[in-house]
Design a protein that fits this description.
The structure holds two protein chains of two kinds. Chain A is globular and about 45 Å long. In chain A, 33% of the residues lie in helices and 32% in strands. A seven-stranded mixed sheet of chain A has the order 1-2-3-4-5-7-6, sandwiched between helices. Chain A starts with 9 loop residues before the first strand and ends in a 5-residue tail after the last helix. Chain A has a domain of 119 residues: Gcn5-related N-acetyltransferase (GNAT) (Aminopeptidase), CATH 3.40.630. Chain A is α+β, with helices and mostly antiparallel strands. By secondary structure, chain B is of the alpha+beta class. Chain B has one domain: Gcn5-related N-acetyltransferase (GNAT) (Aminopeptidase), CATH 3.40.630. Chain B is globular. Classes of the chains: A alpha+beta, B alpha+beta.
């Protein structure tokens, strides 16, 4: 059996409120990271507030929500998050990922985590497809998703405004069969 | 393509940060005991607050920010040692009209006249226009706060309303001046 939560560079984890609050308060200060990962305005909360939010979230374990964190195998450093939401009746999973530690950008950690996520979605949750959205101005992320097997399916024109300019959102997806083919063997 | 690299919360000598519940309450408590500062900073009556009381106010503030989604609060910190030197606020945001009010203060006397206020206000404006995509921002300043008026004017704010004798402080009446700045004014200024 495959190890669902351990890849080549990273593993998927659940985190203690303290550990998460400590890194999140730092990640929130990096507005470039925020703008790459999100479309909400950049915002900063106190470590205390973040911890409270996290503890509240911990009270809800739902069958459609899988909030993972990403740790490096080398050094066991908490570098990012990966959240999976499953649409249970249609077996479609949505994924969001962010590597908050910027010195770990562009080194394959995100791609490795995304591969684990696809393996989890297709072999554990038995999803039919996995979907995601990405800002047009984040080509590094789009390339990473392509490496993991996603393909571009469309764009919503001008739905994000940054620095006074409008930009598109790109929508990507991967089907179960496509993923199985990439693995070189059937499921 | 887009300038998303510029760090919105990092200035030359200062940075914006979140509230620090360990260190900030004591510092802000000192400020509230300085009635001269409080009269510059707020239109509310000056009220000394203990660190415990300041902490309660922070909790209330963060709860309100989370619930109402119409304000943003930043602790202004010295870049050198992360020490709290002031606060900067975007508040009363009307999302449908793209309007908001801004507000800032540098708490202790030794941190004034060093360009921190200018840096903080520039960052706050940039945040309001380039991150929140607001159309205009306004600020209310008592006429006796000449340092603030000079600062806001320097950054392009225009006097829009003068509420004559709206304030009663120190035994006399003062005007309350309302300044405004449009997103388009700001873009022309900074060449964005």
């Amino acid at each position: 059996m495959r190890n669902l939560f351990r890849g080549e560079l990273v593993r998927l984890t659940s985190e203690e409120p303290d550990a998460f609050a400590k890194v999140e308060v730092r990640w929130q200060r990096d507005t470039e990271f925020h703008r790459l990962a999100d479309s909400d305005p950049a915002e900063m909360s106190s470590e205390k507030k973040i911890k409270e939010w996290f503890e509240k979230r911990n009270e809800e374990v739902k069958p459609e929500r899988y909030p993972f964190f990403i740790r490096t195998l080398d050094g066991d450093k908490l570098i990012g998050f990966l959240g999976l939401w499953m649409d249970l009746i249609h077996a479609e999973a949505w994924v969001g990922i962010g590597i908050g530690e910027r010195d770990h950008w562009g080194k394959g950690y995100g791609t490795d985590a995304m591969k684990l996520c696809l393996q989890f979605a297709f072999t554990e949750l038995n999803a039919h497809r996995v979907s995601l959205g990405v800002h047009e101005y984040n080509p590094r992320a789009a390339r990473s998703y392509e490496k993991a097997g996603f393909r571009l399916e469309g764009r919503t024109r001008g739905d994000v405004m940054r620095e006074g300019k409008r930009t598109d959102s790109l929508w990507m997806g991967i089907l179960r069969d496509e993923w199985a083919q990439m693995q070189g063997s059937g499921l | 393509m887009f300038d998303i690299q510029t760090q919105l919360f990092e200035g030359k000598d200062i940075r914006f940060g979140p509230i620090d519940y360990e260190k900030d309450p004591e510092i802000e408590s000192k400020w509230t005991h300085d009635s001269k500062f409080m009269r510059m900073y707020t239109l509310d009556p000056a009220r000394p607050m203990s660190a415990a009381l300041v902490k309660k106010q922070y909790e209330k503030l963060e709860k309100q920010i989370e619930e109402d989604k119409n304000s943003h609060y930043f602790a202004i910190r010295a870049k050198a040692d992360d020490r709290l030197i002031g606060k900067a606020v975007v508040q009363w945001i009307e999302w449908t009209n793209g309007n908001a009010w801004i507000h800032l203060g540098i708490g202790s006397a030794e941190d004034r006249r060093k360009g921190y206020g200018w840096q903080a206000l520039s960052m706050l404006i940039r945040f309001a226009f380039a991150e929140l995509n607001l159309f205009r921002v306004s600020a209310r300043i008592p006429e006796y706060n000449t340092a603030a008026i000079a600062l806001f004017k320097k950054l392009g704010f225009v006097e829009e309303v003068r509420r004559r004798q709206a304030l009663d402080r120190d035994g006399r009446r003062w005007d309350l001046v309302v300044f405004g700045l449009l997103n388009s004014d700001w873009r022309n200024q900074v060449g964005a």
